[in-house]
Design brief:
heterodimer; A: 113 residues; mainly beta; 0% helix; 56% strand; B: mainly beta; 7-stranded mixed β-sheet; 4-stranded antiparallel β-sheet; globular
Chain lengths: 113, 114
């Protein structure tokens, strides 16, 4: 089982739609959680950190359920510019004892005009 | 967030040769990391570059193949040694923000080995 699992998609949605991505992680000792956005042939860019209480940034809402080891990202009123790959990232303690980022494989989103 | 630059941005190399990738940050950072992203895949951590000491490598990556230097708090290099076509990938450096676990990535170096 992968440490961080995401549905690879692609999710094809019309402009203005609401779309949700889910992510599950296997390490219950994971400390912090993030969503990154990666455009084609570009580096990942931090979209938002995910807090236990949930957090919202404009059209984006992230939620964390530690009991179920589950993270979600909701995008409302999708724009064409939201088309990208969304990476779920978990910061967990590795075998060496230090915390490191563990990436999901990413979920591709395509917003259609 | 830090501004991170990498050189070269891309290169095409022959098998058996080595390439050194540079990562420069505009501010002092404690933690710097090197990742690999193979075509169609997500990012895999190669090693943590430690200032003043040897890098910490992840399982599957060794110093002889990927030697790393970190001479100060704003600069690091990753060398891909004795390259083979399987090393064709994007190599990214990353830094951790001060006082948080958020990481920021350089633009990447796209390496093709022929």
């Amino acid at each position: 089982r992968k440490e961080v699992e995401q549905d690879p998609g692609p999710f094809n949605v019309p402009e203005g739609a609401t779309v949700a991505f889910n992510c599950t992680y296997s390490n219950s000792a994971s400390q912090s959680f993030f969503w990154y956005r990666q455009d084609c042939r570009k580096e990942p860019k931090l979209l938002m950190s995910v807090y236990s209480s949930g957090n919202e940034d404009g059209r984006f809402t992230a939620q964390l359920n530690r009991a179920s080891q589950y993270i979600s990202l909701l995008i409302r009123d999708s724009k064409l510019s939201d088309s990208a790959t969304y990476l779920c990232v978990v910061n967990a303690k590795g075998a060496s004892g230090t915390y490191k980022y563990i990436f999901g494989t990413g979920t591709r989103l395509k917003v259609l005009a | 967030s830090a501004v991170i630059s990498q050189k070269p941005s891309r290169d095409i190399c022959q098998r058996g040769t080595s390439l050194t990738i540079q990562c420069q940050v505009d501010s002092q950072v404690t933690m710097m990391f090197w990742y690999r992203q193979q075509p169609g895949q997500s990012l895999t951590l190669i090693a943590t570059a430690n200032q003043g000491s040897e890098a910490t490598y992840e399982s599957g990556f060794v110093i002889d193949k990927f030697p790393i230097s970190r001479p100060n708090l704003t600069f690091s290099t990753l060398t891909v040694s004795n390259m083979s076509p399987e090393d064709s990938s994007i190599y990214l450096c990353s830094v951790r923000g001060q006082g948080s676990y958020e990481q920021y990535f350089g633009p990447g170096t796209r390496l093709t080995v022929t």
